[in-house]
Amino acid sequence: MKKRFMYMVGVVVAMSTTICQAQNATAVGKNVPPHELNHLPKVDISKLQKNADGTYVLFNGTSLEGWRGYNKEKVPAKWRIEDGTLKFSSKGSGLTKEDGGDIIFAHDFQNFELEFEWKISHAGNSGVFFLAKEVKGQPIYISSPEYQLLDNENHPDAKQGVDGNRKSGSLYDMIPAKPQNGKPAGEWNKAKIVVNNGKVTHYQNGEKVVEYSIWTPEWTALLQASKFSQEKWPLAFELLNNVGGESKSGVIGFQDHGDDVWLKNITVKVL
Predict the structure, then answer these.
(1) Inter-residue contact 76 to 219 (CB < 8 Å)
(2) Residue of 114, 121, 117, 124 whose CA lies nearest to 145
(3) Alpha-carbon span 68 to 70, nearest angstrom
(4) pTM of the entire structure?
(5) Which pLDDT score is estimated for 98?
(6) For 223, how many CA atoms within 13 A lie in the half-sphere containing its CB?
(7) Dist CA 36 CA 243 (whole Å)
(8) DSSP string of 28-40, one letter each residue
């Protein structure tokens, strides 16, 4: 009799746990529109140039091998090599809006150190994405944190958000870069993003400016206080709260925000 009683208790507990889990899942996914991932070809980075320090060269100034548009099979025409840099040109002879779009390096990175140099045009805005998924019909930032690239002095975004969390080097709309040491438009900045087992660190011009951990209650709270909250943007909240998906990995990308931006010396070290 005692064994039967204990068995029944176990069944009840198991059923209660299952119901609670289902209720929680329903609550998190409430009003979330369906989404589908694109599964376009990816790159084997073992074939890339590798430096003595173990970093892979994603852009060497002469080739766009491994790069393509987000949710596209080719590099958009507004992205081109200019004087050894990877440049997004806002204007160009014969080019239209359809020739733009964000650009990605087509490899899923999990734990890594990404380094690059960037400069922005007057009043310019751009960004860097990582652990991103290619979601059909959606922008890249719906599934990826963003390291902001900005002309802090002249772009209006610098005065929006909270406590400067839309200035260069910041985790866009969530954590401000401190100290704020971004250089003016037209000058080169050095950036570094480290992702290691959920801990993310932003560096700008040699200084650590932002640090946070994804897949934590604190991360969820940051999302809920941002434009990506469950109430404001349920699909973005769902994807960002589980950034990287089951594989905890994703592509690295640079943003077409409609302003000229230059990039060079793009390397990544796999951790």
Answers:
(1) no
(2) 114
(3) 7
(4) 0.86
(5) 82
(6) 28
(7) 15
(8) HTTTPPP--B---
Nearest to 227 by CA among 170, 174, 189: 174
- The answer for residues whose C-beta is within 8 angstroms of residue 3's C-beta and 6 or more apart is none
Pairing status of strand 125-132 against strand 112-120: unpaired
CB 110 within 8 A of CB 244: yes
In the block, tokens 């699909």 appear at 235
- Name the residue among 188, 206, 198 with its Cα closest to residue 249: 198
In the numeric block, which tokens belong to residue 68? 């393509």
Distance CA 120, CA 259 (A): 8
Amino acid present at 19: I
Determine the 3-state secondary structure of 109 from DSSP.
strand
What b/e sequence results for 93-117 when a residue is b if at least 16 CB atoms lie within 10 Å of its CB, and e otherwise?
Answer: eeeeeeebbbbbbbbbbeebbbbbe
Locate the domains of the chain by residue range. Answer: 1-30, 35-270
Give the CA count within 13 Å in the CB-facing half-sphere of 253: 31
Give 194-251 pLDDT, tens digit per residue. 999 999 999 999 999 999 999 999 999 999 999 999 999 999 999 999 999 999 999 9
* 35-270 under CATH 2.60.120.560, yes or no: yes
Residue with tokens 């746990």: 17
pLDDT tens-place string over residues 39-62: 898 999 998 999 999 999 999 999
Residue 22 Rama label (left phi>0; alpha psi -120 to 50; beta): alpha
Closest CA to 88 of 252, 259, 253, 251: 259
